[in-house]
C-alpha cells in the first residue's frame, strides 16, 4: 500500500514537473531562426558584466537604426544632408544612446541638439557608471562634431519620460557634469514615482545580499542558472508543496540578479528637489533656449498619457524631425511591460504616437524603430487584452493561470523577444489593476525569476 502510494506520488510529481517544464517552453526562439539569420553579438565593453550580449535578429522593417551600444545620430539621413552649409546649421539633431539587449534596466537615453549649440538630454540611465559613459560619449562625439563652429554647447533641459529607476538614477551624475542646466522637466506623476523609488544605496544592499545568497544555489558556470544538483533535487526529490515554495524563493533571488550588473553603490540619490514638475496633459517647450525664438523647428511637444507603462509616462514629439521619444511606451526586441494599464488605455496611447505622423520612434528599451514598431506593440496589447477577456469568459480568473495560458500561446514575434515571461506582469495588471506599491512591483519582478529556473 505504502509502496503504491509512493509510486503514485512519484508519477504525480513527474507529471507536474513535466507540465511545469513544458509550460515553460513555448516555441521560444523559433522566430528568428525562421529567417536563418544568426543572433547578433555586440561589443558593449562599457557595459561591463553585460558586455557580451546576444540579440534576437529583428525583422528588416522594424529597426530604423542598428541596435548598437552607445551614441548614434538619428537625424543624419533625414535632415543633415540638406542643411550642412555653414550659413544654415542643422537646426535640430537627435542622438540616441542605446544599450542592448534592452532587458531589465538596460534603457535608452537621448540627446537633442539645437543649432549645434544648445543641448538637451532625454532620460539618464540606471547608474552613474553608465551615465558618465553617456556623458563622455556626448562630449566626444557631439561636441567635437560641432566645434567646427567654435561654439560652446549650452546644456539646457533634462527631460524625463517617466520615473522608473533605469531612467532617473543617473540624474545626479548628469547634474554634476553639466552645471548651468535650466532644469529637469518631468510630469508631476513622475516626480511622485521618483519619491517612492528606493535610494540607490539601499537597492545596492538588497542586490548584494541577494547575490550572496544566490551564490550558494547558482551554477558557477552560469550565474543565472541554478546549480545542477539543486535543480535535480528540486525536480525529483522535493514534495510538490515544498517545491512551490522553493521555486518562489529561488525565483525571487534569481530575479534580483537582473540588477547585479549595475553599480548602485556608487550612484548618488536622485536630486528630486531640482525637478520642475508640470501637470498639464500637453506642454510645449522651446528647444532654442530662448522664449519663443527658433520658430516651429524648435518646438517639442511633451504629451502625458496615462494607463500605460507607469503613472508619469510622457512622450516627446519633435514635429520638425518627425521623431518621437516614446520612453517605455515602446519596447522593441524585448517584451513590453505594463505597470499601470489597462491594455485598452495603453493602446490609446500608442494610437496617439501614430497620430503624430512621426516616422521615427525611440523606444525606452531596444533599437530605434519606425511606425511598424508601434503597430507591433499595438498588436501585443491586443493579444493581452483579448486573451484576458477570454480567460474571464472561460472562468480562468486567477492571474497566474491566465498568464500561463497566454504565455503558451504567445505568438511570434513576442515569443522570441527577450523577457517574454513579462506577460505574467501584464496579465496581472490587466486583471488586478495598477501596481501602486513597490512591494507588489518587486513581487511581480521576483516571479519573473521563476521562469526557466528548473529548465535543463
Ligand atoms: C570592444 O570595444 C572596445 C572599446 O570600444 C575595444 O577596446 C575592444 O577591443 C572591443 N572588443 C572586441 C572583442 O571587439
Ligand atoms: C566577452 O567576449 C570577449 C571576446 O569575445 C571575451 O574576451 C570576454 O571574456 C567576454 N567577457 C565576458 C564577461 O563574458
Ligand atoms: C563547469 O564547467 C566545467 C567544464 O565544462 C565542468 O567540468 C563543471 O562540472 C561545471 N561546473 C558546474 C558547477 O556545472
Ligand atoms: C497626420 O496625417 C493625417 C493624414 O495625412 C492628417 O489628417 C493629420 O492632420 C496629421 N496629423 C498631424 C498631427 O499632423
Ligand atoms: Zn525602462
Description:
It is built from 14 helices and 16 strands. By secondary structure, it is α/β, with parallel strands linked by helices. The chain has a domain at 49-201 and 265-379: Metallo-beta-lactamase, Chain A (4-Layer Sandwich), CATH 3.60.15.10. A 7-stranded mixed sheet has the order 3-4-5-6-7-8-11. Strands 12-13-14-15-16 form a 5-stranded mixed sheet, with helices on one face. A two-stranded antiparallel ribbon has the order 1-2. Strand 15, helix 10 (343-355) and strand 16 form a beta-alpha-beta unit. Helix 10 (343-355) packs antiparallel against helix 11, helix 11 crosses helix 12 (399-409) and helix 12 packs across helix 13 (423-432). The structure holds 2-acetamido-2-deoxy-beta-D-glucopyranose (4 copies) and zinc ion (ZN). Residues 1-24 form the signal peptide. InterPro entries: Metallo-B-lactamas, NDM-1-like, RibonucZ/Hydroxyglut_hydro. This is Metallo-beta-lactamase domain-containing protein.
Low-pLDDT runs of 5+ residues are 1-39, 77-88
Number of strands: 16
Helix content: 25-40%
Portion in strands: 15-25%
| CATH topology value of the domain at 49-201 and 265-379 | Metallo-beta-lactamase, Chain A
- Arithmetic mean of pLDDT: 83
The set of bound ligands, ions and cofactors reads: 2-acetamido-2-deoxy-beta-D-glucopyranose, zinc ion
Secondary-structure element pattern, one letter each: HHEEEEEEHEHHEHHEEHHEEEEEHEHHHH
Salient structural properties:
456 residues, alpha/beta, Metallo-beta-lactamase, Chain A, 7-stranded mixed beta sheet, 5-stranded mixed beta sheet, binds 2-acetamido-2-deoxy-beta-D-glucopyranose, Metallo-B-lactamas, Metallo-beta-lactamase domain-containing protein, signal
